[in-house]
Amino acid sequence: MTTPANRWRDTPDRYGLISRLLHWLTAAQVILLFGVLLAWKGFGEHPVTLLLARIGPHGSLGAMLLVTTLLRAIWAYRQRHHRPPRPPGVGGLLARSVHLAFYTLLILIPALAILRQYGRGGHLIFYGMELLPEAEREIAWMMAPADLLHSPLAWLLLALIAGHVAMALAHRLWLKDGILARMLGSPQATRDT
């Protein structure tokens, strides 16, 4: 039986409200980040891209994504004994590995970008607030890792997301095993049909 207190926390049957909120907030931030990026690549400076960039400046969204992911990782660690179990065998190992890769990429990609921004001598602005002041000079070793890895890791993240969505749909439509229902807040006990 779900009480108001345990709706917030994870249980063996489903993810709690906090886990689900952090998951979907992360998804929205990533969609907006890639949406702004792809709009700029496709349309250049256009009224729609300028509007998207005002709503979600790439640097501000990246910093927000880093904070959200750190909160999500802390919450997941605190809930680790209460969460729904992973599937057994290779499927469970694969799911665990992909989720670990998500956390790693969602922390590493914005952290590298922040390091590069500071290394360029620029300040870090979060929706108009200065979080880090300008450096007095360029620092090449701070820029090099992000110049090398930021974009390829972001595309790797997008590929993992596509696989994640495909597997969620496969669990819902073909396997009908209740996995997706747990992230939507429904108990696993009722099969996801």
Automatic annotation (TrEMBL):
Query: What keywords would UniProt list here?
Result: Cell membrane, Electron transport, Heme, Iron, Membrane, Metal-binding, Transmembrane, Transmembrane helix, Transport
Membrane-crossing segments per the record: 21-40, 60-77, 98-119, 153-175
From what superkingdom does this record's organism come? Bacteria
Give the chief site where it resides. membrane
- Mode of membrane association: Multi-pass membrane protein
Please report the organism this UniProt entry assigns to the protein. Franzmannia pantelleriensis
Give cofactor(s), names only.
heme b
As for subcellular location, the record says: Cell membrane
GO MF terms listed in the record are: electron transfer activity; heme binding; metal ion binding
Family of the protein in this entry: Belongs to the cytochrome b561 family.
Record-level GO BP terms: respiratory electron transport chain
Record flagged with keyword Cell division: no
Query: What's this protein's name?
Result: Cytochrome b561
- InterPro entries hit by this protein: Cyt_b561_bac/Ni-Hgenase, Cytochrome_b561_oxidase, Di-haem_cyt_TM
Q: Which GO terms describe its cellular component?
A: plasma membrane
Q: Which residues form the Cytochrome b561 bacterial/Ni-hydrogenase domain?
A: 14-185
